[in-house]
Write a structure and sequence with these properties.
The protein is of the alpha/beta class and 135 residues long. 37% of the residues lie in helices and 21% in strands. It is built from 5 helices and 5 strands. It has a 5-stranded parallel β-sheet, with helices on both faces. Helix 1 links the parallel strand 1 and strand 2. Helix 2 runs parallel beside helix 3. The mean pLDDT is 93.
């Protein structure tokens, strides 16, 4: 896989250790990663780099004006090609919290859980090479 064909993901979490873990998991799945520590930072980054981002992986509870659900809805409305995974250890989404293309995983998550989730939910044409392989 050449560098130019490697898709980007945006990991968003206000906990630096979880953000570092999410980045590592997404890189192992075949993504290059951008990071933001809140929804506002994510929107700023997307304003500059959305055309290269294929996946948003976000926490729910974060400081700033956008929680993860609001971020997901804004991303879906503005950049509908971006797949969305929302994660939380304390909040379970209610109907209407997430846009139709978003999926949810519970924290704490493992690399295997995230990779399996992405294998099951992403369309084949949007899976990075490592996710196309058998686990």
């Amino acid at each position: 896989m050449t560098l130019s064909t490697v898709p980007y993901a945006l990991a968003v979490d206000d906990d630096p250790l979880i953000l570092m873990d999410a980045r590592s998991i997404l890189e192992d799945a075949g993504y290059r990663c951008h990071e933001a520590d809140d929804g506002d930072g994510a929107i700023d980054l997307l304003g500059q780099k959305a055309e290269q981002i294929m996946l948003l992986f976000s926490d729910v509870e974060m400081p700033g004006s956008l929680d993860g659900f609001e971020l997901a809805r804004k991303v879906f409305a503005t950049w509908p090609w971006i797949d969305i995974v929302i994660a939380s250890g304390r909040i379970t989404p209610e109907p209407g919290d997430m846009p139709e293309n978003a999926t949810f995983i519970s924290k704490p998550f493992t690399a295997r859980l995230v990779h399996d989730h992405l294998r099951q939910t992403l369309p084949d044409g949007k899976k990075p090479e490592p996710l196309k392989e058998k686990s």
